[in-house]
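Dear colleagues,

As part of the handover before I leave the project, I'm documenting each prediction I ran so the next person doesn't have to rerun anything. This entry is a single chain, and its sequence is reproduced below.
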Amino acid sequence: MVTLQRLEGNPILGPDRRSWWEKEARFNPGTCQKDGYFLLLYRAIGEPNYISRLGLAVSEDGKRFEPIDEKPVFFPEKPYDQWGCEDPRIIQTKDQFFITYVALSRPAGEGGGPPATALLATRDFRKFKRYGIITPPEADDRDTVIFPEKIKGRYIMLHRPHRWTKQWLLKQNPNKPEIWLPFDPLYLPEKPSIWMAYSYDLYHWQGHRIVMEPIFEWEKLKIGAGAPPIKTEIGWLLIYHGVDEKKIYRAGAALFDLENPSEVIARLPYPIFEPEADYERKGDVPNVVFPTGIVEKDRDYLVYYGASDKVIGGAIIEKEKLLNELLKYLV
């Protein structure tokens, strides 16, 4: 078995009590490298109404981070995200960065509308181009990540439409459909799963299909993409999260085919990371490790995660060790 190892000095970042917009929590960061530095684009909570904004932190070594501004770099501004911008994931292309994030058009929690995923592009993390919502309407869609390069001329994304399940559909009034489905309802999985779709322009997404469903006890309740896929010699590596029936969040690993990423070619049957430290077991949402960013550093992968919806942690694993372990579990 292989496991992620926590970085010394964890948690990397926690709430800043001096700041009105991040005094309650800093967590679930997107990650990238730019101009020789490591960047964390993190979700921050400050106000009692729990509206999320995005802040930016920088590091020379990928282990010790400092926020670079006293203000958010991105914040709710449009009707579709006026109640929060959450859980950014970052990929880098040749000349810019693309960021997916969860957008809330209505208050979170009971009585609120379902979340969706929006897309941004930036070159400097100061100015952002908005693409708007990219996930299907009313699907309750989170955990959306985009592959860092086109495959056969198309952009590819993974997403997790929480309502696209047989369980959810059975609760609805069959005479009054409340959700749009681009396929026969018989295709729906039992539990929230990871889906794939493609696009030629980043605005219009089609070809939705299931690529991973929960199959192990540690992910029995639901699964979702974590960090964006990272290319290796043997496949696209996905660090994802799974939730069991006790609502404990853990991290797992899978490989997708390089040329046909709808095919899972390897998947570990056990989690590679789970809540053990106090800051992972206690917080606003206890027992959560939620991977959202990954970067390569020399012979290692650095993985960044939110811990209990309160702080940011980092972990490390040798690339060769993880990939060799995945090859033992080809599907």
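The CA atoms of residues 95 and 123 lie 7 Å apart. The mean pLDDT is 95.

All the best with the project,
I.
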